[in-house]
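// run 5 | inverse folding | seed 20
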């Protein structure tokens, strides 16, 4: 695997105050790099990066990536975009703008600086997939006019822009297709399944299985995911992706609910609620490319990753912060 030199670099992390972005900032700082965190705090929080603010190599800037940005950095991680269906459907036009205008601006910045740029893409580009598990050469099955489309199509268009800048300007790009990721600093009320189930269990409420609860997802612990992102950025120019990053362990939502109940020690019951529109039936990454190109495999099993996640949410509840 060709690698870059590891002397100190300054990375721009857009969406750096979000769930994944803040963990990425932590890891880059711990590796001795500088970080410029750019975020408009739409779904992220200053609390997620508060512990970094005193570090001389960390800088936070409030900025919306749909507007141009002129800064000097050595590489860009483009994570800015709401990720939970509840959040990204609240202002769908802004979601598409963030993905598309945000990608154009960050690609323009990367082009001017001639630095590598990584895009946080998503398993949602596969839509409700007709092949299983999903490989990177699958073109997807996405409803272009549904309520998830602002996110799915925005991310698909961003991938198109990345590859066009690569072909037109020889820009060094890295496209990561991230599958469902969980861990501490997820927003407790973002409506995603892991945060919902744990928060419901901790509050002694019923756990809401949407539909029959037999749909599947594959859950990657955030530390594993961040390791994959950093390894991808550290590859040479020949590695563009797209690369699936996710944990191949596949669970039904019913199984996840059982695990959340066990991890919290709660006595919650499961109840059924309506299935949201266009909810993918199944999702599991084929990570052959990530294994070969990045020597990466997730290390943290769901049952182990749920423990620190539960501890994080329990602390929020006990401190009255959620
Ligand atoms: P998140 O909502 O916690 O983080 C997104 C961050 O982007 C937030 O801090 C938000 O304030 C910021 N942001 C949103 N719009 C912005 C804008 N216009 N300008 C500047 N900042 C903006 O979500 P996350 O789970 O940390 O996701 C991070 C990235 O990873 C997203 O691009 C998401 O699409 C992608 N992703 C996440 C998952 C997952 O399971 N968490 C799965 C696939 C892809
Ligand atoms: N851009 C930016 N920062 C930079 C360079 C460019 O935000 O340092 C923006 C720029 O405003 C433009 C976009 O990136 O809207 C695309 O730039 P590019 O040079 O590719 O295209 P052009 O300016 O020719 O439209
Ligand atoms: N889900 C659920 N109960 C909830 C929240 C979500 O059963 O309280 C289901 C949802 O219908 C989907 C899966 O969990 O099938 C994952 O949903 P999430 O919003 O976390 O992410 P998605 O992968 O759909 O973007």
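// decoded
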């Amino acid at each position: 695997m060709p690698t870059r030199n590891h002397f100190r670099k300054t990375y721009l992390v857009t969406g750096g105050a979000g769930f994944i972005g803040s963990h990425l900032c932590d890891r880059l700082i711990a590796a001795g790099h500088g970080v410029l965190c750019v975020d408009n705090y739409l779904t992220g929080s200053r609390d997620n990066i508060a512990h970094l603010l005193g570090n001389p190599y960390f800088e936070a800037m409030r900025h919306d990536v749909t507007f141009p940005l002129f800064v000097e950095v050595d590489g860009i991680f483009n994570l800015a975009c709401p990720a939970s269906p509840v959040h990204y459907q609240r202002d769908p036009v802004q979601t598409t703008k963030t993905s598309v205008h945000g990608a154009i601006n960050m690609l323009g910045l990367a082009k001017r600086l001639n630095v590598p740029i990584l895009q946080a893409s998503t398993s949602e580009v596969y839509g409700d997939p007709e092949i299983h598990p999903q490989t990177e050469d699958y073109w997807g099955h996405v409803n272009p006019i549904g309520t998830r489309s602002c996110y799915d199509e925005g991310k698909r268009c961003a991938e198109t822009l990345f590859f066009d800048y690569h072909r037109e300007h020889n820009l060094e790009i890295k496209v990561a297709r991230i599958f469902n990721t969980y861990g501490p600093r997820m927003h407790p009320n973002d409506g995603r399944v892991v945060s919902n189930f744990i928060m419901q269990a901790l509050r002694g409420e019923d756990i809401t299985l949407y539909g029959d609860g037999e749909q599947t997802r594959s859950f990657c612990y955030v530390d594993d995911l961040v390791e994959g992102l950093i390894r991808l950025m550290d590859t040479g120019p020949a590695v563009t992706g797209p690369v699936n990053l996710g944990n191949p362990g596949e669970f039904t939502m019913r199984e996840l609910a059982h695990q959340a109940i066990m991890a919290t020690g709660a006595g919650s019951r499961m109840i059924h609620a309506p299935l949201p529109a266009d909810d993918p039936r199944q999702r599991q990454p084929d990570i052959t490319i990530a294994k070969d190109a990045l020597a990466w495999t997730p290390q943290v099993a769901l049952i182990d990753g749920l423990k620190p996640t539960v501890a994080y949410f329990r602390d929020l509840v006990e401190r009255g912060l959620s």
